[in-house]
UniProtKB/TrEMBL annotation:
Keywords: Oxidoreductase. Belongs to the D-isomer specific 2-hydroxyacid dehydrogenase family. It comes from the Bacteria. It comes from Thermaerobacter marianensis (strain ATCC 700841 / DSM 12885 / JCM 10246 / 7p75a). Residues 147-324 form the D-isomer specific 2-hydroxyacid dehydrogenase NAD-binding domain. Residues 19-28 have a biased composition (Pro residues). This is D-isomer specific 2-hydroxyacid dehydrogenase NAD-binding protein. GO terms for molecular function: NAD binding; oxidoreductase activity, acting on the CH-OH group of donors, NAD or NADP as acceptor. SUPFAM superfamilies: Formate/glycerate dehydrogenase catalytic domain-like, NAD(P)-binding Rossmann-fold domains.
Amino acid sequence: MRAMADGAPVPPDERGPQAAPPPSPPASGPGAEDRPAPAEPVVLVAEFCHPAGLAALERGGCRVVYAPGVQREPGRLRRLVQAADALVVRNQVRVDDQLLAAAPRLRVVGRLGAGLDNVDGEAASRRGVTVVYAPGGNARAVAEFVLAQMLALARRLPEAAAMGASGTWLRQALLGDELAGCTVGILGLGRIGRVLVPLLRPLVGAVATYHPRRGPDDPQWAQLGVRWMPLADLLPWSDYLVVLLPLNGQTRGLLDAALLRAMKPGARLVVTGRGGVVDEAALAALLREGHLAGAALDVRALEPPGPRDPLRDLPNVLLTPHVAGLTAQAQARIAIQVAADVLRVLRGQPPEHPAVLPAGAPPVRGGTPGG
């Protein structure tokens, strides 16, 4: 069963496939007909979820309370989560200790994506709450988007689009570059990078990587045909620097003014991991002075950026609103994967993709994120 949080019927475009109700357990034994039916687990879906995931939860016997956008009403969110056995979020709801304290029945948090910077894993573990997520669910979508960002920068599409819309055609002012022969450095080559590298190899000259937790002897570099390089060497080597790092204590502010200036003159920066990795004010200064030829950012330190965004209105910058993983196919995969793990936890089964386990819980197959 599904309901909007305010009791209104679910709009037709949010219903998804119609799901048959779960079968009732067989009654057996003396007095079975007098036993109350087990209560449906309540799943609060607090942000947009693909209809395939909502339908999967309903087929699993859950009562789904669908309340996308509820993060803008903190009091309402706390009220709804009080009755929830499971909470499903994207990246806007902050699952912190305060919210968890308001959810005495909560057993599992499902994160519709791979990033975990909006979930307090330590607080969840301490309170006995499992966190599941969808590593790799949008890897193809993000990899294709990175390639599109690189092509847009190479051919100066932001400037060309603005010129075309203005009706002023100065074609010679928009001389672009080809990807052939260029060098691409990837910061944080993980699941997305493993999909991206085969897309890049027929188009570019060479691909190298720096990973803060994996050194030069990691066998995957040879399998992918990429070089591992120290960060100090990768920056001046790369014509394109692709940032796919997660945001954590080690990576926050990693690309500061000094490291950005260490990039090759005329290089282009692509940021599709987490925005807090890059010093945006320093990046804007280097773009204005011409040290860097362009930048494409799909993720920002503050989302959405405030009115003093230093990158806004720069002609050689492509800014998109965190949409790299937003394809219909990726969102369906993620929603189905997370719904399946939410149901596993509610049934007392180990999840396939745990991000956080309750304190003292035994490890499960697949482990927890390792980067």
